[in-house]
Design a protein that fits this description.
By secondary structure, the chain is an alpha/beta fold. Helix content is 41%, strand content 12%. The protein is built from 30 helices and 24 strands. A hairpin with a 4-residue loop joins strand 4 and strand 5. Helix 4 runs parallel beside helix 15. The protein starts with 7 loop residues before the first strand and ends with a helix.
Amino acid sequence: VAQVAGDIAVPKSIYFRAVEQDASVSEVLDEILALPVIKQHQIRFIIVTNFVDIATYDCKVKDSSLFEFLELPHYYDFFLPLTGKYEKAIAYAEHPADVKACEKMGKLYDSICTENHYEKDDLHILNVFLARLLFCFFAEDTGIFPKAHQMTTALHALTKENGSDLTDFFDNLFLALSNPHGDGERKNLAHTFQDFPYVNGGLFEERVTVPVFNSRSRRLLLECGKIEWQEISPVIFGAMFQAVMDQERRRSMGAHYTSEKNILKVIRPLFLDALHEELQTILAKNKGKKNALEAFHTKLSTLGFLDPACGCGNFLIVAYRELKELELQIILALRAETGEDRSYLNVSLLSKISINQFYGIELEEFPVEVARVSMWLMEHVMNVKFGKSLGVVIPSIPLRHSATIVCTNALTTPWEDIAPPEKLNYIFGNPPFVGARMMTREQKENLQRVFEGVGNTNDLDFVSAWLYVSAEFMQLNKMIQSAFVTTNSICQGVQVTNLWEPLFNNGIAINFAYKTFKWNNEAKDKAAVYCIIIGFSLLNEKKNKLLIDEVGQESIVKNINPYLINSKNIFVMKRTNSICDVPILDFGNMPNDAKGLLSGYSQEDKDIMIQEYPDAKSLFKRFIGADEFINNKIRYCLWLENTSPSLLESIPPIRNIILKVQKARLKSTRQATRKLANSAHLFAEVRQPSTQYIFIPRHSSEKRSYIPIGFLDSSIIAGDSAFTIPNATLYHFGILTSAMHMTWMRTVCGRLKNDYRYSASIVYNTFPWPKSTDKQTQDIEELAQTVLDTREWYPEKTLAQLYNPETMPEDLQKAHTTLDLAVDKLYQNKPFLDDDARLQLLFKLYAELVGK
């Protein structure tokens, strides 16, 4: 559909033009972009080349790129939508400009690193440069600099295309920005640099070596300058540029930044809701409103905030912005109350809240640089907003205030050295999510140092350290309140006692909590991180506590215990035996057989060996682990107990298998495993019941209301991914598969991601079993048999399908519900309102049984 000779244009696809070598591809691209055919035929990509350079534009996402013709293979991803199979992440993001900036800055970062060959110790230079560049891009689009696109225009006009003089350009620019007009070296600079304002604030004070550039990095700088930075919120600068530093993270295009929605989940119940409520109470006054507003304004200006794991400062930036929004409401209310035009007043009399009320601690240098700049830029955004609302322009530069954000280890540096306790009111943030078994040696040492002399740290997640240090810091100012986003596992399983018992013993009380939810963001591939939010303080003066469930339903409760339940503060301890008189629960059999040499046989594998060696038939037994049980998979193992050595020697494949298992065990670093090489024909740990037994998978999906459990014959070998209960009856099955037991399990068990991790010591052995008469026991057994019989009506379905809430048959659900109600009656005659009511009773019974 091209209308110019030599051009090629394909509807909804591309417009291509080749030009002479000395032609400007960028100027030609702009000409084509203005052609009616582009909109008329919904052209996606415009491509112009002189076979030295290529200029291209994506009309859908309004993204451009300019690169050398020979570099085309490195830019293939720009054109992937042409395949029809891929779409750019920009198209899925809530803020397209954010993702575009991240993408462009990522390419610039790579180009600079390639040209400069930075060592690890030299990255400080690059960190400082990128932070300054971020400030300048934002400044030239938002009015901080007096002229629009001032830096980009100067860069384009004053530097060579090969980028060789860019280092001198930035040296002169930073010199101008760091010195007042007429001072020092600034007065010797060219007129173009003299036009830039004095910034101050320490941002440009340090003299560092500016990176070396080439033609590609210069083009990328100009492309970054074309981004509409005024559309980007400083809130996301941090995560956006953190992604720049890591190519793997950058591929997900924003999958790692924390949304404002989730930040507000922390700061609203911690302090923001109460401040808004206080303001509304003042505004409703008939008398003394002016004095009350001024007192409230002063109060806001004295509040101090600390994020001890601040990263790039997202929490601090949002908290500052929300505080400024409150301040603006106060000033507008005072204007309305007095009827005065206060625009003539000194700026400092109008605005009292500043970024120097905010403190941050962060281990990595680059996030610290970005956090400082982002706070300055959010200050500018709010200054502009104040100007529009009040008719007075609050100048953003020279920079006067600075948030105290320190690059150090928050677990080895005393917080009082950074943030004076007497100046702090709130501590909040999102500390690192690292599981107890996933920490580096240094992280483990830091955790152990924090909890030295307190108790067992082996099972604690890394985030626990921040809660404990925060609680200790509160002893210096008992009015401080804290709230953290944490891994949900610190309120599950054995971590509860190890962490929360010492915290509670030191006077900590939980004021509010969000139960487990997914910490999502705006990226296409959302991060599925399961977490909780916990707000706590030392002074337990709040009679009403706020508990928010998975769907956001709020409840006012009297107490929140460490399991995030409205109940007394009871700690469920690990036990080696049950607190009730019930059969013993044990692990299944552990093969330790070098990747399935003893336990990894399909029906076909078994049949092939038996066909060649008929005597092997008696050596195979059905083997069932959690996966096989839940998904009805067929698997066999070699069960060689009480088998004569001569029989094993007569079957060469089995003899070879035993030798391989023996060699594998001998290679182990564990002495106990090496010792097992003497019995290489046997499973490493044999615990096979001699009678029919209940089978319980150790792990099960969190989507299920019931863990699928059942009975197995003693001839079926249970794997160690499950538990077994020999000599169990239908009554035991009925109680274990009931809502009462499942509620207990969900509350006290550990988790894998968010899936249930059943255990003997913390779930089964701690569960308060009910008392029952012979008649009640018989009723439970009959209802339990109904559940098993109902399953049999669906032989084509696996247990995974039967217990998936979306595919669970109605009659099976009804059978379970009937059983649930019968088990509930064993505990109390009155029906339970919900699972929380069940838990309140179970915790009470647990405390009584442990007391006995």
